[in-house]
Amino acid sequence: MTVSWAQAIAKSKTTKRTAESDRELFASMVQEHERYLFNIAYRLAGNREEAEDLVQEALVRAFRSFRSFEPGTSFKSWLYRIVSNLYVDTLRKRSKYREESLDEPIIYENGEFKKSIPDYSADPSQLVEETGFVGEVQKALDCLPAEYRLAVILCDVQGFSYEEIAEIMDCSIGTVRSRIHRGRKALRKYLEEFGKERNWLPGTVQ
Amino acid sequence: MNCQKVDNLLSAFIDREVSPEESREIRLHVEECDLCRQTYLELSQVKDALASLGEIELPPGFHSHLLDQLKQAEEPWIMRWLQQFKPLVFAGALGVLFATIGLPLAQGAKVVQPDPLSDLRFLISEHQRFQQSEPFSNSLPPTVTNLLPEVRYRPVHVDDFFIRTVSTEHNYAQEVVLSHHLRY
After folding, report:
1. What is the residue range of A170's domain?
2. What is the band of B180 on the pLDDT scale with cuts at 50, 70, 90?
3. Residues of A72-87 as b/e, b for ≥16 C-beta within 10 angstroms?
4. With 50 as the cut, is the pLDDT of residue B9 above it?
5. Same domain, residue pair A151 and A181
6. What is the Cα Rg of chain B in Å?
7. Interface predicted TM-score (ipTM)
8. Closest Cα of chain B to A78: distance in Å?
9. Nearest-CA residue of chain A relative to B42?
10. A30 and A108 part of one domain
11. Which of A156, B126, B151, B182 has its CA 20 to 30 A from that of B4?
């Protein structure tokens, strides 16, 4: 069962609200968006585990502010905005941790020790993420700055208008326009580089 | 429109997010300019590539997992926090309980009840001591004088004697001492 935002608000004003009724209402309103939010999160994060954690956490946050939420903006944009903000926050927190090179050896008094990364290529459970051209596109997306990635995904994967993206990202339409443009140009560059590595003809993406 | 301006608007043009007038100018420019046409084609390819990304199915049990999370979210934060550290919290509470009550009891401590007559007894003993050292003095010992304001408004039962509170310290002390003499 899905309920429109306006219906839900009207209903919540006429009937007595309990914790359970609020939860049921929220869950039913959110259900139709879950798949789209998960897809956005998947394209943002690049893998299923992070995407699922991101959407679950974002929806719990949305639920906490659900009672104080006043209608006016669209429920859909509001949900996407929470997911986007949480994603940017997570990235910021992560960047506080020091990044370490995996190529440089650890140097001891008695000599060097080379770091190693496990090779999952022989493990079939690690091969669930996309491969081939789609994998390359995802890899290119992962290389983009978060703001560009978000704008491009909202526009080209989910088909939002510039106005809706501006609402979700809390910025002007001009900013949306330049983020999408720069994002696509950067993507084009990465895809061309990957294409050269894989002997794809330069100048043709597909 | 020059190349620079057209380039800036190309993505918006592809997305049909420009005004009809801008759209017409850009189309005219792209038809004539090879470089801008190349960029236009490349950007369109990127858009198509992104649009062609397949849809990912929701992980199984996503909605029921969400319902569980929402139930948890309803509890006040302090409860959620406590639940996270459940075994630790119980162990800590037990520890505090043992340290404040169990340990002193185990060491043989007794629960002490205040004796209502302790200050009266002290008063009497002090008075007797003073009388022995200075038998002819008419005044009260300083220890007694200090204590009197505290005791004197308290009706005290000494066996079957009820010692009334009286106005002057001197009389009160005498009465206390008198009652003492009468009793013992």
Report:
1. 128-198
2. low
3. eeebbbbbbbbbbebb
4. yes
5. yes
6. 47
7. 0.71
8. 18
9. A188
10. yes
11. A156
> What is the band of A163 on the pLDDT scale with cuts at 50, 70, 90?
very high
In terms of domains, do A12 and A108 share one? yes
- The 10s digit of each residue's pLDDT in A18-51 is 667 778 888 888 888 999 999 999 999 888 899 9
A140 and A189: one domain? yes
Residues 28-67 of chain A with CB under 8 A from chain B are 30-31, 34-35, 38-39, 42-43, 48, 51-52, 55-56, 59-60, 63-64
Residue after which a domain boundary falls, among A117, A146, A174: A117
Task: Specify whether A138 is located in the same domain as A67.
Answer: no
pLDDT in tens, B94-149: 888 888 887 777 777 665 555 556 666 777 777 777 777 777 666 666 666 666 55
A148 and B CB contact within 8 Å? no
Instruction: Say whether both A62 and A4 belong to one domain.
Output: yes
Are residue A87 and residue A3 in the same domain, yes or no? yes
Q: Please give the DSSP secondary-structure letter assigned to residue A46.
A: S
- Is there a contact between A155 and B15 (Cβ–Cβ < 8 Å)? yes
Measuring CA to CA, which residue among A82, A98, A86 is closest to residue A26? A82
Q: Per residue in B56-90, pLDDT tens?
A: 889 998 998 998 888 887 766 666 666 667 777 78
Domain count, chain A: 2
pLDDT at B88: 79
> Which segments of A79-197 are extended strands (E)?
106-108, 111-113
Burial of B24 (0-12, 13-18, 19+ CB in 10 A): exposed
